[in-house]
């Protein structure tokens, strides 16, 4: 906030656009609103209904103070209505994160990251875990033990988040797991696209796998992206490592995959920009 304020003072923007739900999002919101600068929030209306998650607080504050709320799903619109936010502030534009994925699809499809790591395309489970509730306590060791058991039947590729790596240094990681350093965007999308399934506690990964049509299992009690569950690609396992054992049986049964959610087509940012332009021209 201290470093952003002089930038806004110097540039005098007519609008500040903030994405997502991280702490820097909250900082930008508070700085802009205290300076009287209009705000727009991208990925508005997402709710896990778990106020113990810092991201949930950041989302609610960003939406409350924003003049334009760019929404990516019908559920998000319903959340805003329930909170009494005026309908004219919300704009259903689609998912900007899918824009990023579509823009680099040719690159990650050609990357062959799985082969470089010694895994066969379509024959491994991709894992990404980083949330404190899962990795900062005894659940991490239980999770690694379950992954080691699963790896006896299906290889497990696990790019390890720095927070998770720090905790793993104090526990037994087990055998049969391919643990790597964190990967860049292209390499990670390459692994996602070629995975048999994904186990995650990430919100963004739930959306990417839905667009890619890859089965996703989420090791959380809730999700702020229920559209991924309704699309048939994502399943909540709860905060229970023992349920990792359900992954292989679920993959054998399979689930019908629905089309990608409406407006997850690579053009969400264009629609958001059009709303901004229309607003500016109307001033």
Relevant terms:
six-stranded parallel β-sheet, 10 strands, alpha/beta, four-stranded parallel β-sheet, 15 helices, 283 residues
Q: Could you describe the 3D structure shown?
A:
Helices cover about 45% and strands about 15% of the residues. The protein contains 15 helices and ten strands. It has a six-stranded parallel β-sheet, sandwiched between helices. Helix 2 runs parallel beside helix 3 (about 55-65). The longest helix is centred in the C-terminal third of the chain and has 14 residues, at about 270-280. The radius of gyration is 20 Å and the shape is globular.
What layout of secondary structure does this protein have?
Elements: H1 4-11, E1 16-19, H2 23-34, E2 39-44, H3 54-65, E3 68-71, H4 74-82, E4 90-92, H5 96-103, H6 105-109, H7 113-116, E5 125-128, H8 132-135, H9 139-150, E6 156-159, H10 162-168, E7 177-180, H11 185-194, E8 197-200, H12 203-212, E9 216-218, H13 227-230, E10 234-236, H14 247-253, H15 268-281
Parallel strand pairs: 1-2, 2-3, 3-4, 5-6, 5-8, 6-7, 8-9, 9-10
User: What is the residue-mean pLDDT, rounded to a whole number?
Assistant: 93
Q: What would the principal axes of the Cα set say about the shape?
A: globular
**Rounded Rg:** 20 Å
How many DSSP E strands? 10
Instruction: List SSEs in N-to-C order.
Output: HEHEHEHEHHHEHHEHEHEHEHEHH
């Amino acid at each position: 906030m201290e470093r952003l304020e002089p930038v806004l003072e110097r540039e005098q923007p007519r609008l500040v656009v903030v994405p997502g739900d991280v702490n820097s999002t909250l900082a930008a919101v508070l700085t802009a609103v205290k300076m009287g600068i209009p705000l727009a929030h991208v990925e508005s209306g997402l709710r896990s209904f778990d106020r113990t998650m810092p991201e949930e607080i950041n989302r609610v504050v960003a939406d409350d103070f924003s003049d334009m709320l760019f929404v990516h799903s019908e559920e998000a619109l319903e959340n805003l209505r329930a909170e009494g936010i005026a309908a004219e502030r919300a704009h259903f534009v689609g998912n900007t994160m899918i824009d990023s994925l579509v823009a680099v699809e040719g690159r990650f499809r050609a990357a062959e990251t799985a082969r470089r790591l010694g895994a066969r395309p379509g024959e491994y489970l991709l894992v990404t875990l980083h949330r404190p509730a899962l990795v900062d306590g005894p659940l991490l060791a239980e999770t690694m033990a379950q992954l080691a058991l699963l790896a006896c039947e299906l290889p497990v590729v696990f790019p390890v988040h720095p927070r998770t790596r720090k905790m793993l240094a104090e526990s037994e990681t087990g055998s049969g797991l391919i643990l790597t350093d964190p990967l860049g965007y292209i390499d990670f999308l390459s692994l996602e696209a070629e995975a048999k399934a994904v186990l995650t506690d990430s919100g963004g990964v739930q959306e990417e796998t839905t667009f890619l049509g890859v089965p996703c299992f989420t090791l959380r009690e809730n999700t702020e992206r229920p559209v991924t569950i309704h699309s048939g690609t994502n399943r909540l396992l709860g905060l229970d490592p023992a349920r990792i054992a359900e992954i292989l049986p679920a993959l054998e049964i399979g689930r019908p995959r629905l089309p990608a959610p409406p407006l997850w087509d690579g053009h969400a940012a264009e629609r958001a920009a059009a709303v901004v332009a229309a607003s500016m021209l109307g001033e």
